[in-house]
Design goal:
- The chain contains seven helices and nine strands, in the order αααβαβαββαβββαββ.
- The chain is of the alpha/beta class and 210 residues long.
- The protein has a seven-stranded mixed sheet, with helices on both faces. It has a two-stranded antiparallel ribbon with strand order 6-7.
- It is globular and about 40 Å long.
- The N and C termini lie far apart (50 Å).
- The relative contact order is 0.13.
């Protein structure tokens, strides 16, 4: 408990990425619940979508990548946190599933110099990664999604609803999220999610333009 409090204080003065690394090192990861959201189950386990290649952005310790690997022939999880990815690989091995975990910058996927992910994907999962970025980086996120999701592919995206935190607004409105994804993605549905700690929206987008 003392170590966690120290980690919290130190993280406030560290660069953002080092803060995330510290959280994984000390195990202070309340977002890593180990639960599979019902929307993902609906799409994959119930057969609404049958992707051949699935991408988990901001995959953390791999909980959702491992789940997707039980329903998709090929799954890649990407995150910049090496401690998180080490845990993900161990978890996948224990679970007996084949999922590949790669250190990568979500904002630079598919760009020269970025890790080779083996081509485009039929399905991309973002379980609350987008809303952690600044407005400038959100535009880069949309460009990244357009590079890695093939036409006809889908994106299942969760993002916090707008709210005040520490004197600033965090989260994204539905209009802001649609603007991030741009004309290359068509919104299939959006839902008000009540099964998570913080209120958020869940979106299903389809890639419609090359």
């Amino acid at each position: 408990m003392v170590l966690e409090r120290v980690a919290m204080m130190v993280s406030r003065v560290l660069p953002r990425r080092l803060s995330w690394e510290l959280y994984y090192v000390v195990g202070r990861t309340p977002w890593d619940t180990g639960e599979i959201p019902p929307e993902l189950t609906e799409l994959l386990a119930e057969g609404e979508l049958k992707p051949e290649r699935a991408l988990d952005v901001g995959c953390g310790t791999g909980t959702h990548s491992i789940y997707m690997a039980r329903h998709c022939p090929e799954v890649v999880g990407v995150d910049f946190s090496r401690p998180a990815l080490r845990q993900a690989r161990r978890k996948a091995e224990r679970a007996g599933v084949s999922a590949r975990f790669q250190t990568a910058d979500v904002l630079r996927l598919g760009m020269p110099g970025s890790p080779d992910l083996g081509g485009q994907f039929d399905f991309m999962l973002d379980l609350s990664c987008l809303h952690t970025f600044s407005a400038e980086d959100r535009a880069r996120y949309g460009e990244s999604a357009r590079r890695v999701v093939r036409p006809g592919g889908h994106v299942l995206l969760y993002a916090w609803k707008p709210r005040e935190q520490d004197g600033r607004t965090v989260g994204l409105s539905q209009e802001e999220t649609q603007a991030v994804m741009g004309d290359a993605f068509e919104l299939r549905w959006v839902r008000d999610v009540a099964h998570t700690r913080r209120p958020r929206f869940c979106y299903l987008f389809e890639r419609v333009k090359g």
